[in-house]
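Chalcone isomerase domain-containing protein: structure, please.
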Amino acid sequence: MGQKSILNNLWLTINLHSIFNSVQFMKKAITLLVVFFLTLSFSKGIAQEKFKINGVTVPRTIDFENQKLQLNGFGSRTKFWTDVYVQALYLTQLSEDAKDILESDTNMGIRLQITSSLVSSQKLSKSLHKGMVKSIGEENLPQIKMQLDKLEELLNREATVENDAFNLIYSSTEKAILVYKNNKLEGKIPGFDFKKAFFGIWLSNNPVDAELKDALLGKIK
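Here you go.
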């Protein structure tokens, strides 16, 4: 084989190698671009997504003490085949562990939005009272009686009607639950033990509604 033929073959090999590398590079580049745009579209869709249940829009976050509490899960409370309220749980860090949530001394919140005209202030406070008894036991109720009386006072301060929304948010700095009704602060209920008992209405080993508990923990999608 002559020198010219060798050079031609070498040149052809180099060109083929370059073309192959270029094709591989283009494939990788196209793949990365596709992944990028799919991720961008997915993120945008998630950011714009609104959660709705029984006609109630559930906020994705709650602003509290210069912090955004994240929606952990949500569901509805049903009694006698009637949806009485939509509930959502907000945490600083998402979790499926009910015990850790109850024991955690971090900011967290419960949101209740009334969905039935049959729910009154008195019925709501009575229902929460029963839920707390179920959660911690009748024998432990005297330890939080003062806080429980305060909760009932705040809930019965004015009439509760359909679509009223309550945000009951535990502050780790104040060691108290702040009670908001339709975004207006009604009062504060002190005590970390009360916080555990209150959140335990829905998250304890003996919750008022096992299916709602799973929904709040994000186990029901």
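Notes: Residues 31-48 have pLDDT under 50 and may be disordered.
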